[in-house]
Amino acid sequence: MTLGFGILEIVVSLAAMLSAAAGLTWVERRLLGFWQDRAGPNRVGPFGTLQAVADGVKLLFKQDWIPPFADRGVFILAPAAGMATVLLGFAVIPVTAGWSVAGHLNVGILFFLAMTSLGVYSVVLGGWASNNKFALLGGMRAAAQMVSYEVFMGLSLLGTVMLAHSFSLVDIVMAQGRMWFIVPQFLGFVTFLLAGIAETHRLPFDLPEGENELGAGFHTEYSGMKFGMFFIAEYAGIVLIASMITTLFLGGWLGPVLPPVVWFLLKTGLTICFFILLRAALPRPRYDQLMMFGWKVLLPVCLLNVAVTGAAILLFSPTG
Amino acid sequence: MDQTVVRSESIPKVRPAGSAPAPVQEVRDDVETLWVSRETAGDVLTRLKRSAPTRMMLFDITAIDERQRTHRAGQPDSDFTIVYHLMQFDRASKAPHREVRIKVALLMASLTMPSMVDIWPNANWYEREIFDLFGIHFSGHPDLRRILTPPTWTTHPLRKDHYARATEMKPYDLTEDREFAEQEALRFNPEAWGMQRRSANSDFMFLNLGPNHPSVHGVFRIVLQLEGEEIVEAVPDIGFHHRGAEKMGERQSWHSYIPYTDRIDYLGGVMNNFPYVMAVEQLAGITVPPRAEMIRVMLAELFRLASHLVFYGTMSQDVGQLSPVFYMFTDRERVFEIIEAICGFRMHPAWFRIGGVAADLPQGWDTLIRSFLDYLPKRLDEYEKLVMRNRLFKARTVGVGAYSLDEAIEWGITGPGLRACGLDWDYRRRHPYSCYDQLEFDIPVAQKGDCYDRVVVHIAEMRQSLRIIRQCLDQMPGGPVKADHPLTTPPPRAKTMHDIETLITHFLNVSWGPVIPAGEARACVEATKGLNSYYLVSDGGTMSYRTRIRTPSFAHLQMIPLISRGTYIADLIAIIGSIDFVMADVDR
Fold it and tell me: B562: distance to nearest CA of chain A, Å?
């Protein structure tokens, strides 16, 4: 029975995830339209809500074209890898205390970090296998950017782990009963947010795509549903990072009056909107500026945060 | 009419030691025009550059195929004439404005001219253009290739014996052999572009940025030699947008060419009509009535606003900011509402006429403009916060793509790009045309000459344009909008309805076109992107004998390699965005 329930849970989570990611493409375009004084997609279905479906159908019916000069196997594998790692990352997210695929996993955070790190391969390999110079430049940017931002993404989470005494995400949420970690871990929150934007390569850190510079960057040669997978993986990545922020810093499902699942969705949704707002507002830094910012500003800040958190725990901990 | 005979005391300045005095040509504009021999041309140009109190810019080089020209009494024998146009750029705003035209006669037997690239680096593209379109060889030119037509092209289109229309040539046929040859000609060979394949410690990557790329603003190709993302060498390749606008000028009546000028700088609208009709009016000796002058200036400034708004938006988009471009296009729409109300068209109104403008202002034009004048400044304040004070925007543009004032003048940079280097040089002030001398405005400058400063100057210019438009609104004189002159095309309508002479003129002017007296004249304006001039040669016919369009964008693109070497691809995109060009303005 548990096995059956577990599978059902996985299927429901996956379906919810994918439709959320697809729906998010519509949400983003509508919100951007709203902020940019224009309509956005409003024709398909009520308020254009079925736009994502129309886009999906269009992508599915497009010719499945692989450039003759591409490295075929890797070219096909890359978008699938991107999709798979993001979806696997969701396994550890606890939507509520009782609803998560593997929320109690005692190395939950490490698993999440492992999955996001693997996600880099999708972008790098996609860029490499395309055998296109713009794609290659995009892939290289992705590799450099993600390696450097990976470093302090892990470090930025250490503070919460130290406060919660656990790597399990359910435990971390439970530990925020009295106070959300965004308060004691504000530096951690900010650095994780920045790393998360870099990780999902969203504007202003969308250098691997950098449409004004590299055409479409690493996915220049992709079309049809393979492009669609990169596309959905990016949005799934946003949902993943947003739910991670909710879980780690915003008290997860905890909240008064409303049922836990609503709180979780509300917090995640608002975080996602913030991501979209950033895209509407900010220009893109240059590649070397991004690197410099990562290594010279964010990394020291993260280390400082860990040191201060450690010192504070030592000082105030009753067992100390 | 502005027919100045060049004073004789100005000649010795350019006469090379020990040679006969250069013959002075009488022209209908105020440019000193001198003929020199091929042998002394280099010397004369060098002296002009060195001896000028400040700086001489090589403003333009062009050629005239003289073989079918009938009215050229008093000019030396010539089959092809090379025309060098120099302009003085002086810091002191009181100094008299000086422009010099140096002409060199070439005979069919030896169509060779020494290259002037050593004197002015920007002679490079101009000489290539003449080589391409006239088939004149420039000895000592470092890279004499075709520039506007494809490398496989065989003819020289601006020669008088060259066909001008598709109906005059055989149908185009792309055979397999020809297709193969064309394809082969496109094969990239780094050496042909002056690039090495590898250095001591690395193999270079060659990247073909364009002609179809989101950030090159049209069909423009830059071939990049890269080390990682760092640019070792950048070579611009233009000509994809070439439509033969100058050749069309020789096959359209003086009147019917006006709409073609709209499409040169397609963001500038009537700003393009301006120098063209002014040049024709100089040839015809027409004085435009004050109301028409002020309507022209007002519309030109509205188009400056529209063009600068597009520049501002696309510039911020080029560095990755998604939203401002939408706001600015919305504002530009407001400009177009006014232009549409006045002209009936939006982007290409073709609204100016020889001798005035097409019609009077419509009722209620002042309310429209007044509400716009109140609306835009607030929006500009908002954009200041959104774009110019954004730290990421500054990080991308401050110190990027900078050139000095000397470099700017060496390379023929005009307009906001020049003023961003600290020189308050504006043609509207230095050589006031139309009614600019009656209007008050400042000339915004910036000091560092980098991408950020170019944007700063553009924005400040928008506020000055608003100021000029407000003055036009308050001071708009009454009276006719067309000159009372037989060559005004079409003549004032009220008269055509009453006397037969004017009706006949009207009929002839709009069917054959007006017959403009023989002569030469150029008119120049401070266009949206820099100095735009039309140099017209009339042989006393219904069509121009030679139409030369000097555009700012052509000169500006030539400088890209100089300012982009050693930067990153992302910087190049910022540089391209900050130059403010449109390809139609480059290729014509």
Answer: 20
Which CATH number fits the domain B245-587, given the four candidates 1.10.645.10, 3.20.20.450, 3.30.750.24, 1.10.10.10?
1.10.645.10
Helix (H) or strand (E) holding B352: strand B352-353
Interface of chain B toward chain A, CB-CB under 8 angstroms: 205, 207-208, 213-215, 229, 316-323, 326-327, 330, 386, 390, 392-393, 395-396, 568-571, 573
The string over B485-519, giving b where at least 16 C-beta atoms fall within 10 Å of a residue's C-beta and e elsewhere, is bbbbbbbbeebbeeeeebeebbeebeeebbbbebb
Pick the residue from chain A with its C-alpha nearest to B569: A213
Phi first, then psi: give them for residue B370, nearest 5 degrees: -60, -40
User: What are A88-100's pLDDT values in tens digits?
Assistant: 888 888 887 777 7
Domain ranges of chain A: 66-316
B227 CA to centre of own chain: 35
Mutate to test the interface with B, among A133, A212, A214, A293 (most CBs of B within 10 A): A212
Which of B205, B214, B392 has its CB closest to that of A283?
B392
Structure tokens belonging to residue B41: 């041309």
Find the CB nearest A286 among B322, B323, B396. B396
A287 to chain B, any CB pair closer than 8 A? The answer is yes
Bridge partners for B55 per DSSP: B89
User: Which residues of chain A lie closer than 8 angstroms to B396, CB-CB?
Assistant: 283-286, 289
As for the ipTM of the complex, it is 0.83
Beta strand segments in chain A, E: none
> What is the distance of C-alpha B505 from the center of its chain?
33
Taking CB atoms and an 8 Å limit, are A282 and B207 in contact across chains?
no
Among residues A7, A9, A4, the alpha carbon closest in space to that of A100 is found at A9
* Number of C-beta neighbours around residue B5 at 10 A: 8
Judging contacts by C-beta atoms under 8 Å, the chain A residues touching residue B316 are 283
CATH superfamily of B8-141: NADH:ubiquinone oxidoreductase Nqo5 subunit (3.30.460.80)
Cβ(B328)–Cβ(B313) under 8 Å? Answer: yes
Q: Is there a shared CATH topology between the B8-141 domain and the B245-587 domain?
A: no
pTM above 0.90, yes or no: no
* Spatial distance between the Cα atoms of B83 and B61, rounded to a whole number of angstroms: 6
Q: Tell me the pLDDT tens digit for each residue of B442-493.
A: 989 988 889 999 999 999 999 999 999 999 999 988 888 888 887 887 877 7
Q: Which residues of B are less than 8 Å from A283 in CB distance?
A: 316, 319-321, 390, 392-393, 396
| Contact flag B320-A284 (C-beta cutoff 8 Å) | yes
Give the residue from A190, A213, A191 showing the smallest Cα distance to A287: A213
Residues of B within 8 A of A32 (CB-CB) are 322-323
DSSP-assigned letter for residue B218: S
Total residues found in chain A within this entry: 320
Dump pLDDT digits (tens) for B519-576. 888 899 999 999 999 999 998 888 999 999 999 999 999 988 988 888 888 888 889 8
In a 3-state reduction of DSSP, which class is residue B456?
helix
Burial-class residue A274 by CB neighbours within 10 Å (0-12, 13-18, 19+): middle
